[in-house]
Amino acid sequence: MARKIRVLVAKPGLDGHDRGARVIARALRDAGMEVIYTGLHQTPEQIVEAAIQEDVDVVGLSILSGAHMTLIPRVTQLLRENGADDIIVIGGGTIPEDDIRALKEGGWVKELFTPGTPLEAIVEWIQSNVKV
Amino acid sequence: MNDQPKGIKEGLEKWRENRCQMKDRDFRFETVSGMEVKDLYTPLDIEDLDYERDLGFPGEYPFTRGVYRNMYRGRLWTMRQFAGFATAKESNKRYKYLLEKGQTGLSVAFDMPTIMGYDSDHPRSLGEVGRVGVAIDSLQDMETLFDGIPLDKVSTSMTINAPAAVIWCMYIATGEKQGVRPEKLTGTIQNDILKEYIAQKSWIFPPEPSMRLITDIFAYASRHVPKWNTISISGYHIREAGSTAVQELAFTLADGFAYVEAGIKAGLNVDDFAPRLSFFFNAHIDFFEEIAKYRAARRIWARRMKEKYGAKDPRSWLLRFHTQTAGCSLTAQQPENNIVRTAYEALAAVLGGTQSLHTNSMDEVLALPTEKAVQIALRTQQILAYETGVANVIDPLAGSYYVEALTNKMEEEAEKYFEEIEKRGGVLACIEQNFFQQEIADAAYRYQRALDSKQRILVGVNEFVNPDEKLEIEILKIDPKIEQEQVARLQKLRRERDNIRVRETLEALRRACEGTENVIPYILDCVRAYATEGEIIQVMREVFGEYKEKPTF
């Protein structure tokens, strides 16, 4: 039997809008994944440490504060430095199209989900992109 | 007269028989909060409504019909667009632009580091400076923010909570610099920490010292800044976090009661501070549910303040409120549709009797608004005020069978929550038990599931979608350079100010925090010495500690 996909849902930075993160965490759990939610106000260092300790397949970053161009690359960079670049980084939140392009083309993030994305779409994306 | 309900009852039964043969659309007929609605409302739905007891006249107890006798015929609501981005200098320009376009009050949005009590050069501020609001590190920034804007002529609302005391002191000190005495200052600090723990999640200190800061502000303001609204008890963020309308109503008023109880417990006379309490509600897309929510809020508040808390001054009974249209109702898809959504929501706020209104800009779901988008949002209010005629008549929907029945229903449902909260040991206990947070998370999840299954239609998102949609509106960009500039300015200030005086005022503040004296005069001294927000908050953090939430979903 295949093991369950493990996902860390994290809120980096100072912003406290956790509605999206919590709704998605619950949807992933309902879809049969193991979900760890870091809670609020996490530094990239704290997130990476938790991701490695929990041995997750995916880190999902939820950002609404406009700090995505700083925080997302920082998390990916730290994962690489710690030899954990097999962990897939995805993100979501209020992120303008130009920045989405830059983050994806720069290799900082595998996929970004903006407001209005159905929960199923995120579940399916993870299921088809994570090999367990 | 007495036979009338009987006649209606018979008529209704007959009507229902015939109507049942007609097929209804395949649609879930309920409010956006999931409250079931009937197909028809008649006098039978408001049989127990007693006009004098439940409605009264505008400006009279229990204020269901509005807090002022003449409402918008006397004065229109304050049009107050929430704004702030980048640096104090940039935001000052935007304020002057808005005032010139006819806005009648300012509303300051701060960036995340300012909201969380960090200076712009703190490691945790990296990437966040000036992003979602203006960066304010010291009195110097505040002076720049209001440069050329006379504080005795404009009323300013500031969305600041955990560090509200510090930012408010900076505002008072800016007034001093302009030669404006504190008793002339008008405006609002949000200062609502309970809703931070419940929904917005921008806290610093644990609940008890946070409540002390709030009662210190109540006490200081009642003596020195009498025209200031010392708190804006906010349902807005509770709703944005995903609550239903009833949860927004009930949790917000419960918070309000908690502040009143804290004030009384701190030894203040309820009538000395209650008239300065104000509220802040969301205007979501379900038109009638929102109107009923505002009307119920006024009635519940008036009754409690009079009957439970023994307030004698009629001004203590009034629930005055600001409204913002629902950010969470807007869509990134077909953003121009947001103009229409915002207009309907603004109409609900006005028909519900709001005192002040912020209409969201169509692009806010994508970034901070551009000048063009914010102008359309402001014009939406002006069209409402000057063209539609809705401001001519006070509480025009009173007596509507549906609106009155829904108002009663909102009150009933809120009362159930009050009982539950009391049973659990009060608001602070409920926060510790994660009660509010869980109720809201459940509602948010239900709502998202309803969208995903198309039980609820969101135009442009799950229906009426434009395939291959390209975004055609302009987006405001914040130059990353502004962070470096802000940091440079802050570090220059630290070099040039009288650092001995800074240390002395901070030490005096530390002693005040450790004791029981009112801390506001001490914070004012720190601010006047150009101590930074981060330095002042750090002293308080060391004395009060930091709050940590148990993460759940």
UniProtKB/TrEMBL annotation, chain A:
Record key words, sorted: Cobalamin, Cobalt, Isomerase, Metal-binding
InterPro entries xref list: Acid_CoA_mut_C, Cobalamin-bd, Cobalamin-bd_sf
Example GO molecular function: methylmalonyl-CoA mutase activity
EC number annotated for this UniProt entry: 5.4.99.2
SUPFAM superfamilies xref list: Cobalamin (vitamin B12)-binding domain
Major enzyme class: isomerase
PROSITE patterns: B12_BINDING
Residues covered by the B12-binding domain: 4-132
Superkingdom: Bacteria
Cofactor(s) demanded: adenosylcob(III)alamin
Keyword Metal-binding: yes
Protein name: Methylmalonyl-CoA mutase C-terminal domain/subunit
TrEMBL record, chain B:
Methylmalonyl-CoA mutase alpha/beta chain catalytic domain span: 31-546
EC number(s) stated in the UniProt entry for this protein: 5.4.99.2
A family per Pfam: MM_CoA_mutase
Keywords: Isomerase
Molecular function in Gene Ontology: methylmalonyl-CoA mutase activity
InterPro entries reported for this sequence: Cbl-dep_enz_cat (IPR016176), MeMalonylCoA_mutase_a/b_cat (IPR006099), MMCoA_mutase_a_cat (IPR006098)
PANTHER family: METHYLMALONYL-COA MUTASE, LARGE SUBUNIT, METHYLMALONYL-COA MUTASE, MITOCHONDRIAL-RELATED
Name of this protein: Methylmalonyl-CoA mutase N-terminal domain/subunit
Organism per entry: Desulfofundulus luciae
Upper taxonomic lineage: Bacteria, Bacillati, Bacillota, Clostridia, Eubacteriales
